[in-house]
Amino acid sequence: MIALSTAYILPCCIGGLWGDWWGGFVYAGIIRTFLVQQSTFCVNSIAHWLGDHTYDDRNSPRDHLFTALITLGEGYHNFHHEFPSDYRNAIVWYQYDPTKWMIWVWKQVGLAHNLKLFRRAEIEKGKLQQDQKKLDLTLAKLRSTNLQLLPVMEWSEYLDQVRKGRSWLTIAGLVYDVGTFVEEHPGGRSMIYSGIGKDATAMFHGGVYNHSNAAHQLLATMQVGIIRGGGEVEILKRHGKCGPPLK
């Protein structure tokens, strides 16, 4: 009865003060109810379609300012699903959540009690884990070569390819084809040529020059194989299973 009175009878009475009973009933009653219902339904539609998975992407709820604007703060729906016991939807001070603000005001005047807050450390942990997951996906897209797809070769096979004219060198057990990079190398061609057919790990990691992170990323685009055992294995050489050293 209270809901019916405030939703329809009260608007009619207020409109009637200006001689517009029907206007109060239609505009302030029916149309307003329709708009409020549509706004509420957006929580189960737009809030699961538009925005970011801030804390968890295993389910569909998302966070977005636009949804918050049309649902009076319910737009940070990913947070709500991840931490349902928390009375808030938005936890950052500048995020739009008038419902949270009103509940807080009611608490100050004694109309609300025992408001639930999820542990801050767990909230931050969830966000960092999701950020790391997104970062890992981005890095996977940028990674030039999947190491699991690279062929594994013996040291002797590596030397055979060098004798056939390949500009290959090894660093930390991986084989790199630097043929197209020789002319671009800032240290000159002779520096790269001195490592071809050899294990250039020490040279690359500070023995000659301690290369930058960008150099490591560029080098990763040249991977062509993996050396079994990580390098030249002495026991195989003594048993004659490894080719003679490159001269």
UniProtKB/TrEMBL annotation:
Enzyme class: oxidoreductase
Residue ranges constituting the Cytochrome b5 heme-binding domain according to the UniProt record: 150-228
Keyword presence, Metal-binding: yes
UniProt GO BP: unsaturated fatty acid biosynthetic process
Pfam families tied to this protein: Cyt-b5
Known cofactor(s): Fe(2+)
Broad class of where this protein is predominantly found: membrane
Name of the featured protein: stearoyl-CoA 9-desaturase
CDD domains for the chain: Delta9-FADS-like
Keywords carried by this UniProt record: Electron transport, Fatty acid biosynthesis, Fatty acid metabolism, Heme, Iron, Lipid biosynthesis, Lipid metabolism, Membrane, Metal-binding, Oxidoreductase, Transmembrane, Transmembrane helix, Transport
Membrane topology: Multi-pass membrane protein
Family as reported in the entry's similarity comment: Belongs to the cytochrome b5 family. Belongs to the fatty acid desaturase type 1 family.
One Gene Ontology term, aspect cellular component: endoplasmic reticulum membrane
Localisation per UniProt entry: Membrane
GO function terms (MF aspect): heme binding; iron ion binding; stearoyl-CoA 9-desaturase activity
Matches recorded under SUPFAM superfamilies: Cytochrome b5-like heme/steroid binding domain (SSF55856)
Keyword Metal-binding attributed: yes
EC number from the UniProt entry: 1.14.19.1
